[in-house]
Amino acid sequence: MQTKTLHKRLDQKQENLKSLLDMQDDVVFKEVFIPGYESTGLFVFVNGTMDYPAFNEIVLDLSAAQVETNHPISIEQLVLSKICPVREQDIETYEKAKEYIFDGKTLLFIDGIVTGYVLNLEKEKIRALSEPSTERVVRGPKIGFIESLQENIGLIRQYSSHPSLIVKQHKIGTMEKREVALIYYEGKASDSLIKEVNQRVNEVKATDLQDSGMLEELIEDTAFSPFPQIQNTERPDKVLAALQEGRVVIMMDGSPFALMAPTTITMLLQSPDDYYERWVAGSFLRALRYFSLFVTVFLSGIYISLVSFNPGLLPTELAMTIAGTRENVPFPPFVEAIIMELTIELLREAGIRLPSPIGQTVGLVGGVIIGQAAVQANIVSSLMVIIVSITTITSFTVPQYSFGLAFRALRFGAMIFSAVLGLYGTTLFFIIVISHLSKLTSFQEPYFQPMDFIGKKTWKDAFFRLPKRKKGGNILESSGRQNS
Amino acid sequence: MSQADGKILSGELAAIISCSMLGVGMLTLPRTITEKINSSDGWIVLIFNGVLISLFICLLIVMLKKHQVTNYYAYMEEAFGKWLYKMVGLIVVVYFTGVASFEVLAMGEMVRFYLLEETPVEIVILTMILATVHLLTGKIKAIAKVCVFFLPLTIVIVLLIYLLSIKVIDIKNLQPVLGKGFLPVMKGMGSGTLSFFGIELFIFMFGTVKNKNKVKSGVLIGFFIPVILYVITYVLVVATLTVPEVKSVTWPTISFVQSYEVKGIFIERLELFLLITWILQFFCTHAIYYYFAAEGLTEIFNNSYTTNLIVLVPLVFFLAKIPKNTIEIFTFSDILGYIFPFILIGLPIITFIIVQLKRSRRSG
Fold first, then answer.
1. pTM of this structure
2. Taking an 8 Å Cβ-Cβ cutoff, which residues of chain B contact chain A?
């Protein structure tokens, strides 16, 4: 497509534009007569992107314009003064014109003037701010991000008025350009981190990104890990806390989920209301989460290895009880466990996909009825049902959904290791998971930092959430990344 | 601090040293020491050994600091010249490989004995070696983190188990203190070296510690955590099982934990927890020695670290296959026990003296 400068006459412009936009039925051409100057203007825009009230105002202004006899001004000056609040740019070529039309802008051409004006009369289609649906808290701010990048940045700016909060915007994507914003506090986020994030975001080559989840996969350290290496959130308060910790927040237009990098395990297990509630409760809940992670992954495995390899290690009465419940069950513990775990995972997946009232019914029907029937039919033992239910409940306590998913998947690994090598296998699997975590990095920073749990300053905020009432009480300063 | 810079903190150094010391030694030391001195005074031996070695550590650190050692292999090259250095380096690597296979072998025996009677021990050994290789691709930083995570876990679980044993301890079994005089204790000084395996590694880690001023405290903390655990273990085991019984069992510490049951909690057989934490500790010890063997090969032959990791898999595995029975396993440990003082004491002192002479000649 060769570049073609705009014609001077309006009818020529219209003809050329029409032939250029030949197939597009949603492009609207609207002429407006400017009586004072005996001239005509032409608006070109894509139907549906336009903010009509603002458009009407400009049209009214233009058509009401009169030539002032005292200080006569040219038509160009008149038009410029009328469109000044929405004018973005001037264009000279048809190709540029086409580009801006599909960008959602409105173009204005005046008969006799070569230059076309790009007006920003875009109306963003956004939903109202509402409570984040994936990360609910009992106490704390109830506002969540929406799909509009500008609105989200506005939310962050509203709560953080410090001038050292930097917002840098890029456009990425090879075909559809998406606006991506990097947000950080200058001086708090390390230069090497900012450089690394910038570089990775700029290297992204994708035709289109619909959600920040897709961006996450393209900029994370390694794809070969079950664990999410970048934290995501819908909550502005979490983003603000992350900024205070010196992390970089990446937001993308069209996605209500902000990405926060780098990430550590301790961060993924913190919920914002740990800090909003009293510290005793917060510490208790946080410790509970670590425990529940362990239970999620290893309880079924431990059951399998104890029952099938070392029943002698159990207390005698308990061993008898287990043997009693398993008396008529034809399967080995591993098969029994796999059947139940798979059933539960299926129910869970089905429950998410269905509309919420039906989803709950399916959960209830599946959980209660299938469980009961399976026990009565001697397909699984009742203890197995209890264990599977416990592991399912515990897997829901992880504040970050994607992190919980990783552990749900790992549970099957633990079960297989236990079925093959017994308790040694369970331990081996534990070792392998810990080894993997030790090697994992998030933006070159360690992902798993056990020194946090025993470090002088950091332990208070790692496993527990101890009170922060100390000189200024800046808990976020000392949380997590001191040792990293 | 990023993951890639390969420097460790002094706390991590302490954890690595503790984890490398806590291995098979803790489970067998009541027997090895009691066999030698034939009385219940082994804890005095342990304390004496601990104090002596810790004094020697302080001396070594002064020596290493004086020469500003950042890489021990380069330091050895400076001392011995190119060819002799390669020979000495290889001996060191062979020793590391030996300890690595010995630990994994001992773990295989323990697992076979208490957990998996029917599974071939080769599978246990091989899976452990492969898990180690998986960890070691992350180099010293990954090992440090694993140790920092496993060490507090081990200490807490072991102390809890010991706490619950209070009912069965009979302190009379330890009396009379020094009943046979001081001589047997002096004779027993050399025994139980197996328990101190691991302390020599700090020489090789000296260059990787971030803050050189904290090396001493790191090493000493890392050294005294296991020594204190050893003394507690020895006292409890001998007080519970009595001297003749301790001498007759292969794994006295496990036998001690098996000797009592705790009613009222979910699991009354506590050896389960001891076995699991000790698998973790065996893994750590094995992984650390394996790492230093691979690292040593890389320094000596200047080839890729990953290649060395893979080359060592069959070496460690077949070395662990050589001993056919328990007696041969202990012969294996005895041979390693002879090399240990050379690596800990002989090598650094000789190297120091030669380098000192060379450097003073050059400057003077």
1. 0.89
2. 1-4, 9, 11-12, 111, 115-116, 119, 123-124, 127-128, 131, 134-135, 137-138, 141-143, 145-146, 148-150, 152, 266-269, 271-272, 275-276, 279-280, 283
